[in-house]
Amino acid sequence: MLPKMDGYKVCALLKADARYHKIPIIMFTARAQDTDKELGREAGADAYITKPFEAQALLGKMRELLKD
User: Any idea what the CATH number is for the domain that residue 62 is in?
Assistant: First the structure.
């Protein structure tokens, strides 16, 4: 947990800032509901991975996002 704001807000702030908007953001969370995933997409997340997870899935997503 983050103090004073959640990950969705942090993601939205980073994506709204011209200095950081091109940096890929992977939301990594235990929240697995469709509504949570939609909030991540709306905040600008490039990927949404829920716990528990497979390390290879995370590495694959990182490689995919960093190719561009």
Answer: 3.40.50.2300
pLDDT digits (tens, 9 = 90+) for 44-66: 999 999 999 999 999 999 999 99
Prediction pTM value: 0.85
Check if the beta carbon of residue 57 is closer than 8 Å to that of residue 49.
yes
> Is residue 11 in a domain?
yes
Q: Give residue-wise pLDDT tens across range 12-37.
A: 999 999 999 999 999 999 999 999 99
What's the number of CA atoms in the CB half-sphere (13 Å) around residue 23? 13
Q: Rounded to whole angstroms, how far apart are CA atoms 49 and 25?
A: 11
Residue 40 contacts by C-beta under 8 Å, 6 or more apart in sequence? 8, 11, 27, 29, 48
